[in-house]
Amino acid sequence: MVIPGLKLATTAFISALILVICYDGIRLASEQRFNDALATGDADRVTDQSGVHRQFAKAYALQRQRDFRATVAAYAAIDATAGSQMQMNIKFNLANLYFRQASQLREAGTDDLAMPLLELAKQNYKEVLRTDNDRWDAKYNLELALFLAPELALVDDLEERNPEHSPRALTKSPSREPLP
C-alpha cells in the first residue's frame, strides 16, 4: 500500500534534486569556459564575468599577454580589502610583473629604468611576507631582487656591525709600531 503523501514528497524531492543537478551543471560549464579563456590568455572572454576574482583573472590574462601598462591598471582597479588573501595575491603578481619588466630592461642595458621597478618589486614582496611569512615563492623572488639591487641600508649596516670588513677599516685603524 502506497501512502499518497509519501509519493508526492518523493516526487518533489526528486524534482528538486534534478533542478539542483542542472543548476550545478550549468555553473560548471560556465566555470569551464572561464578557465579555458584564462588558460588561453583571452582577456576579452574573461571580462564577461563579474566579481573580484574575475577582475583578478582578467589582470592575470593581461599579464600573460605581456601588456605591462594594461596589467598594472587592471590590478589597480581591483577593489580588494586590505590584508586579504586577494590583496596579497595582487601584490605578489604585481611584484612579479615589476621584476620581469626590470629584468627585461636590464638585459636591454637600461639600468636607470630598471632600478625603480626592482624597488617596487622588493617593496611588494616585503609587504606580502609581512602578512604571510611562509610564502617561499615571495622569499625566493625577494632574494633574487635583492641580488640584482641590494639594499644600501643593509650594506651600511653590515659595515657598522663588522667594522673589520669595512674598506674604511684599513685606513682609519691605528697602526702599531714594533718596540725598539
Task: Provide a short characterization of the protein structure.
The protein has 180 residues and is an all-alpha fold.
Our count of helices gives 9
* Rg, Cα atoms, Å: 28 Å
Strand percent estimate:
under 5%
Shape: elongated
What's the main sheet like? none
Q: How many distinct beta strands?
A: 0
* Helix fraction by DSSP (H/I, runs of at least 4): over 70%
Low-pLDDT residue spans: none
pLDDT averaged over residues: 80
The SSE string, one letter per element, is HHHHHHHHH
Structural class: mainly alpha
In whole angstroms, the N-to-C terminal distance is 125 Å
Structure description:
The mean pLDDT is 80. The protein has a domain of 73 residues. The longest helix has 37 residues. The protein is mainly α and 180 residues long. Helix 3 packs antiparallel against helix 4 and helix 6 runs antiparallel to helix 7. Helices cover 75% and strands 0% of the residues. The chain contains nine helices and no strands. It is elongated.
